[in-house]
Design goal:
This is Malonate decarboxylase acyl carrier protein. The chain is an alpha+beta fold and 104 residues long. The protein is 28% helix and 33% strand.
Length: 104
């Protein structure tokens, strides 16, 4: 397992609900937990992944997400078992929507 930690500038999240969990850890998939934390204009992301050596890819995918979505003031934990960048982006969007009360 490899552990990666990132911090990205991001617009503050507009509406906060309870912490949100999205996805299932399994072969080729991941789970994401998003909760309140950190500074309002940044999001912190911690990743535990079975796929070693993809730090640059994670940084690019997460940086793009943070730039395109208001995720500031959040802490995101990702448990990964080899998900593709497209699945990561999809699960992040789902978790953020749930966190903002969109799943109700």
């Amino acid at each position: 397992m490899e552990t990666l930690d990132f911090r990205f500038a991001s617009k503050p999240v507009s509406r906060v609900a309870d912490p949100a969990l999205c996805g299932v850890v399994g072969s080729g998939n991941l789970e994401i937990l998003i909760k309140t934390g950190g500074e309002p204009a940044a999001c912190r992301v911690s990743i535990k992944t079975s796929a070693r050596g993809f730090g640059d890819t994670w940084q690019a995918v997460l940086g793009s997400f943070a730039a395109g979505h208001a995720a500031g003031g959040t802490e995101i934990a990702i448990n990964d078992m080899g998900a593709t960048p497209a699945v990561v982006t999809l699960r992040l969007a789902q978790a953020l929507a749930e966190y903002q009360g969109g799943g109700q």
